[in-house]
From TrEMBL:
Keywords: Flavoprotein, FMN, Prenyltransferase, Transferase
Highest taxon of the lineage: Bacteria
Protein name: Flavin prenyltransferase UbiX
Residues given in the record as dimethylallyl phosphate binding sites: 193, 209
Function: Flavin prenyltransferase that catalyzes the synthesis of the prenylated FMN cofactor (prenyl-FMN) for 4-hydroxy-3-polyprenylbenzoic acid decarboxylase UbiD. The prenyltransferase is metal-independent and links a dimethylallyl moiety from dimethylallyl monophosphate (DMAP) to the flavin N5 and C6 atoms of FMN.
Record-listed FMN binding positions: 50-52, 77, 128-131, 163
Organism: Cupriavidus basilensis
Amino acid sequence: MCSRACGFPASQPSICRRWCRSTHRNGKRISAKELDVMASQRRIIVGISGASGAAIGVNLLKAMRGLDGVESHLIVSASGMLTATQELGIKRSELEALADVVHNVRDIGAAVASGSFVTEGMVVAPCSMKTLASVANGFSDNLLTRAADVVLKERRRLVLVARETPLNLAHLRNMLHATEMGAIVMPPVPAFYSHPTSIEDVVNHTVGRILDLFQIEHGTLVSRWSGLAHDFAR
Ligand SMILES: Cc1cc2nc3c(=O)[nH]c(=O)nc-3n(C[C@H](O)[C@H](O)[C@H](O)COP(=O)(O)O)c2cc1C
């Protein structure tokens, strides 16, 4: 049970949603020091915000779960949960079970809110225009945007899988601002040259390209371009 008397019987790192709303493992709030001990070499924060494309965040977590030495830290915004449920029919508990550690988006005191908690960086997938605007303007009003702000200030890798179409000038300007600060804006645009035959193919190609940006070997998610066949090139 949670040591803060919320009655949360967590056996894996997870959030208490009944009372204290902080990151837990074995019924106790996880301190940054404990998270340090848990750490394998490569911690990556995964933010899921309320843009369309929740499958990208979900499949990213699934891919990371299968990789040795990679530790995922999940933060889902309220709208992110809404879109994930609308698009995938997934429950919060099912989504959270895919991550190694789950942080409540309202827990602004979580480990990932500080630069002293070392991570490789963060992916926001999908990234809504609202979250993009927050990140681009340093407006850290929840843990997801604070964690992204920290990643930028520490000069770590921040990948924003920004999804909207068409784009207005504010969206474009915010993408420019984020890029100028060092973020990588990576809209989830399908690669038709790989001849995808399913939505899963399209999603996994994006997931693989995200992992490429962290130089994480992931096997077969991306169908790699190896040049035009000789017949076409003529
Ligand atoms: C089903 C659904 C799909 C949405 N798709 C997008 C989208 O593709 N891009 C976007 O910027 N906002 C989209 N929104 C709106 C965002 O969820 C909304 O702006 C929200 O405030 C974003 O909050 P967050 O960035 O804190 O998650 C969508 C909303 C819903 C309900």
